[in-house]
Amino acid sequence: MTTDPTAGRPAATPSPVLSIRGGALRVRNRELWSGLDLDVHPGEFIAVLGGNGTGKTSLLRAMLGERRLDEGTVQVGGHAAHRGHRRIGYIPQQKIAAPGTPLRGRDLVALGVNGTRWGPPISTRGDRERVDALLASVGAESYADRPLGSLSGGEQQRLRVAQALADDPTLLLCDEPLMSLDLQHQRAVSELIDARRREHGTAVVFVTHDINPVLAIVDRVLYLAQGRFTIGTPDEVLRDDVLSRLYGTPVEVFRSRGRVIVVGTPEAEHHHEVVA
Ligand SMILES: Nc1ncnc2c1ncn2[C@@H]1O[C@H](COP(=O)(O)OP(=O)(O)OP(=O)(O)O)[C@@H](O)[C@H]1O
């Protein structure tokens, strides 16, 4: 197991945006993981991989200050994580709006701009211009005035990205943002997030079941399994020996046409699906 919080990174890097020391989480007397040290630096893209219930969402909630770690500390920008941090953008696990939802895409993005995510409607000209710029940045102008419930999953997800970028975040937390999107929209949403971190130095923590759509842009992987974890570059982590040690069972990693396929994990056997 790799425990070095800077594993896989070159020396002499700027101060971390996010820093976890000795992190541990437990649910109902079950340890999800412990001893987690992780530094995430400006512009870094960290993928968090792992099967169902390994604590990926709980980890993001600890970064958001919505859940306390059972041990250890989480700092964002040098201060203890707390709720309502203005410089954290959050894309929660996708919820497609019901067909009758009257809220428009423009309103969703405006909620991110006007101070609190659930605050009053915006009114100032500056805010309206900011909403227009955000809508343009995700290519959503043409459907911004339609009710959310009438938009496709990919269109809604672009709007969620725009909302998460509204506060000019230094840290962007994404919880399965590609879930139920087709390949074209997976690529489009990944590119939006990648552009943000390249152009603004936003650090990205990206929870995903499938690393393949973002394999080319991931700097490091935090892989959670069996109450343990490992951290490193995709080449360091996505290997037979490393994952076999992590899972405690023989696991094979195949690479084909730029894709990674992991075979032999308990998740793959139970769900007949590829994990990474
Ligand atoms: N509020 C809660 N109360 C009790 N148990 C919880 C709570 N939130 C999460 N858990 C449990 O903690 C474990 C980790 O949940 P979490 O949602 O973090 O996992 P995950 O890795 O994000 O899973 P998935 O891939 O299925 O979304 C699960 O067993 C879950 O049932």
Automatic annotation (TrEMBL):
Stretches assigned to the ABC transporter domain: 18-251
Domain of life: Bacteria
Entry keyword annotation includes Isomerase: no
UniProt keyword Nucleotide-binding present: yes
InterPro entries hit by this protein: AAA+_ATPase, ABC_transporter-like_ATP-bd, ABC_transporter-like_CS, Metal_Ion_Import_ABC, P-loop_NTPase
Keywords for this protein: ATP-binding, Nucleotide-binding, Transport
GO molecular function, one term: ATP binding
Pfam families, sorted: ABC_tran
The protein's name in its UniProt record: Metal ABC transporter ATP-binding protein
